[in-house]
Design goal:
Layout lengths: L3 E5 L3 E2 L4 H14 L2 E5 L5 E2 L1 H16 L3 E4 L5 H10 L7 H8 L6
Parallel strand pairs: 1-3, 2-4, 3-5
């Protein structure tokens, strides 16, 4: 079994297609200890996708697995984060996950 996988998400990351995103993530989390998500910059993103990712982050942490974004949130993903308010009270771990920001030592 491989240790890592990159999942290339599709361009519709909204409630109308959230089952596909959910199934893709669950299947990968069952098979791999390390998952990296590639989100297209032009993807249509709403809060349902952000909620799925937040739940997946929690599940990964509970299972001792790694979940990360291949690239920092940009484009529609970043705009969805800003609209949702998730970045308003973001912790250092949140900023590291979504924006790939490192904390100063």
């Amino acid at each position: 079994m491989e240790n890592s996988i990159v999942i290339r998400m599709h361009s519709n990351l909204c409630v109308s297609d959230i089952r596909t995103s959910y199934s893709t993530l669950v299947e990968a989390m069952d098979k791999f200890p390390s998952i990296r998500l590639a989100v297209p910059a032009d993807a249509i993103v709403d809060i349902s996708f952000l909620q799925i990712i937040e739940a997946a982050r929690q599940r990964a942490a509970e299972q001792g697995k790694s979940l990360s974004l291949l690239e920092p949130a940009n484009g529609e993903l970043r705009r969805a984060l800003d609209r949702s308010g998730l970045m308003t009270a973001a912790t250092a771990a949140d900023r590291s996950f979504w924006l790939h920001e490192e904390t100063a030592q």
